[in-house]
Amino acid sequence: MTAEDSTFAVLGVLGDDVRRRLYRHVAAAPGEVGRDAAAEAVGISRSLAAFHLDKLVEAGLLTVSFRRLSGRTGPGAGRPAKVYRRAEGEHAVSVPPRSYDAVGRLLAEVVENAGLDRELQAAAKAAGAAHPDAAADDLIEVLRARGYQPFWDGETLRLHNCPFRALAEDFPALVCGMNLALLEGLAPEQWSPTMDPCPGGCCVALSKNKNH
């Protein structure tokens, strides 16, 4: 089986509506998700949730570990429960095959070597401000639609997913600076994006200005 065939097989697992909803719930969660919580979130039985969650694990889309959800230890604490979280890595396919990643890395390398960080940030901020979703009332929905998977951490809005992860790993200063500028342009004026990395997630966090 070729790499492309393997990717088709993995993404084919998400053809089932229940699995898609389970994957979205677990992938967007900032921590591990148990079977009961996943079942309740998508409105299905625990046994059905367990079946589909394990299928997602087999496909490499989720990872599994075990811990006691009650927080108790010692005799009588019960057996550790299966908990799930989004697996690392990416799965993408295009028909016919394209190689946008290679072009993206080449362009990023040229921009970085030429010292055009500020020009890139200015362009990113302008692009964010010009986007139809800019200044939208519901920033959380805007970020969710763009793949950031936002969640509240106290009064801070953190981003569980970095849409530019592959490039950010190779060009962190360049891409993270671009991302911050993009979100500065996209966010309404009552929001303040700052560089505040989320473990395993995006480098930017947002908070509301105190006068709002």
Automatic annotation (TrEMBL):
Pfam hit, one: HTH_20
Gene3D superfamilies named among the record's database cross-references: Winged helix-like DNA-binding domain superfamily/Winged helix DNA-binding domain
Coiled coil: none
Designated name of the protein: Transcriptional regulator
